[in-house]
Amino acid sequence: MSLKQQFTLMADYNAWMNGNLYRLAAGLDDGDRSRDLGAFFGSIEGTLNHILVADLMWVNRFRVHPARYRCLDELDLLPTPTTLSETLYPSFAELHQARDTMDRIIADLIEASDEQDYAVPLHYRNVKGEPLTRAFGPLLMHLFNHQTHHRGQATTLFHQLGVDVGVTDLLVRIPNQGPESP
Questions:
Q1: Model confidence pLDDT, tens digit, residues 25-36
Q2: Contact 165, 21 (CB under 8 A)
Q3: Does the pLDDT value for residue 64 go beyond 80?
Q4: Which end of the chain is more exposed for a tag (fewer CB within 10 A), N or C?
Q5: CA dist., res. 88 & res. 70, Å (int)
Q6: Using CA atoms, how far apart are residues 152 and 47, in angstroms rounded to an integer?
Q7: Considering the domain boundaries, does residue 180 fall inside one?
Q8: CATH number, residue 81
């Protein structure tokens, strides 16, 4: 499986999991969704907000890639956070809509990229303002890994509220490549 195929799989998994978690969160009342349950970002909504904040920060950094992916122009419609705990939207519905947009932008970015793009070094500044240079491919891996890390925290918060999130394994998104075993 090529890197592009792996990133395509991760973008699919990302959108699927976010869709599941946002659907479950929408079914909670505002109090449960925003209740501080002791996670890094407090609540389910705070955790989902943080994932979007970090995604926005990273994907905006990807705009400096020499390929100049046109799909990233849509980021102009979304906020540009400056801190990792910044609250992006006053309502959960707006957060949900932005998440859907971000997931589409990420999928379009992967679709627009080529294998050679992943080795290109990107120069950026972290949230502390420190200049860094890292290859685009590993930064994409980090983007997906970060999401998975915090979605795992969100699933624990759902569990604390008695909500079963169901299967969360990447495995269910990996296509079967042969006949089923007996």
A1: 999 999 999 999
A2: yes
A3: yes
A4: C
A5: 24
A6: 10
A7: no
A8: 1.20.120.450
Which helix (H) or strand (E) element contains residue 121?
strand 121-125
Do the Cβ atoms of 47 and 40 come closer than 8 Å?
Answer: yes
Helices 3-26, 136-160: axis angle to 10 degrees equals 30
Q: Which residues contact 133 (CB under 8 A, 6 or more apart)?
A: 121, 122, 123, 124
Q: Single out the residue of 108, 135, 137, 140 nearest to residue 122, CA to CA.
A: 135
CA-to-CA distance for 71 and 104, rounded, in angstroms?
9
Residue 61: count of CB within 10 angstroms of its CB? 19
Residue from 117, 125, 135 nearest 68 by CA = 117
Q: Is the pLDDT of residue 182 over 70?
A: no
Residue type, 37: L
Residue 135, SS3? Answer: strand
Whether residue 178 lies inside any domain: the answer is no
The helix-helix angle for 3-26 and 44-61 (nearest 10°) equals 150
Digit-coded pLDDT (tens) for 6-21 = 999 999 999 999 999 9
Q: What range does the domain containing 151 cover?
A: 3-167
Cα 12 to the center of its chain, rounded Å:
11
Question: Is 181 within a domain?
Answer: no
Phi and psi at 135, nearest 5°, equal -70, 145
* Within a domain: 179: no
Q: For residue range 133-153, what is the model confidence (pLDDT) as tens digits? A: 999 999 999 999 999 999 999
